[in-house]
């Protein structure tokens, strides 16, 4: 196992901190919050996290948030792919649910739509909101 901890510079200057990991964390978190575009943003987060770690290792500095940006980015990719697969697999049921919800003007009629979705797919209704 290698020691990746930053060492102080010998010329007396304080070590520089690589900020790319924080940008990667921002992109990864945005990917989790914006599911349709989550894959693209999460991939940016993963790439930025790896770049920050590599740059920090080469310069013997720290890269705060770099590893976390990779983890959050991968999580965003998984969530986005899962939501996209639900939309593809249950396309007809999703269309029926959207049409039913558009016609539902009361809480009780929306509950009927929710129950129909749950009985036809077996998924909780929160899987469609997003």
Q: Poorly predicted ranges (pLDDT <50, ≥5 residues)?
A: none
Number of discrete helical segments: 5
Structural class: mainly alpha
Strand content: under 5%
Measure the end-to-end span: 42 Å
Radius of gyration: 22 Å
Question: Helicity range of the residues?
Answer: 55-70%
Can you tell me the number of structural domains?
2
Order of helices and strands: HHHHH
Largest sheet: none
Task: Please state the overall shape, judged from the principal axes of the Cα atoms.
Answer: rod-shaped
What average pLDDT do the residues reach? 82
What's the total number of strands? 0
SSE blueprint:
Blueprint: H1 20-33, H2 38-59, H3 66-89, H4 91-103, H5 107-121
Could you please describe the fold and organization of this structure?
With 130 residues, this protein is mostly helical. It has helices at residues 20-33, 38-59, 66-89, 91-103, 107-121. It folds into 2 domains: 12-88; 90-130, no CATH class. Helices cover 68% and strands 0% of the residues. The two termini are 42 Å apart.
Q: What is the gist of this entry?
A:
The protein is mostly helical and 130 residues long. Helix content is 68%, strand content 0%.
List keywords for this structure.
mainly alpha, 0% strand, 130 residues, rod-shaped, 5 helices
């Amino acid at each position: 196992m290698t020691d990746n901890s930053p060492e102080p510079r010998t010329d007396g200057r304080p070590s520089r901190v690589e900020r790319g990991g924080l940008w990667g964390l921002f992109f990864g978190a945005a990917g989790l919050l914006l599911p349709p575009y989550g894959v693209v943003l999460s991939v940016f987060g993963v790439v930025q996290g790896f770049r920050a770690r590599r740059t920090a290792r080469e310069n013997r500095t720290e890269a705060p948030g770099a590893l976390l940006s990779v983890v959050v980015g991968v999580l965003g990719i998984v969530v986005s792919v899962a939501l996209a697969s639900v939309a593809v697999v249950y396309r007809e049921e999703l269309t029926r649910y959207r049409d039913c919800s558009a016609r539902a003007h009361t809480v009780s009629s929306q509950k009927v739509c929710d129950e129909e979705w749950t009985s036809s797919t077996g998924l909780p209704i929160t899987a469609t909101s997003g």
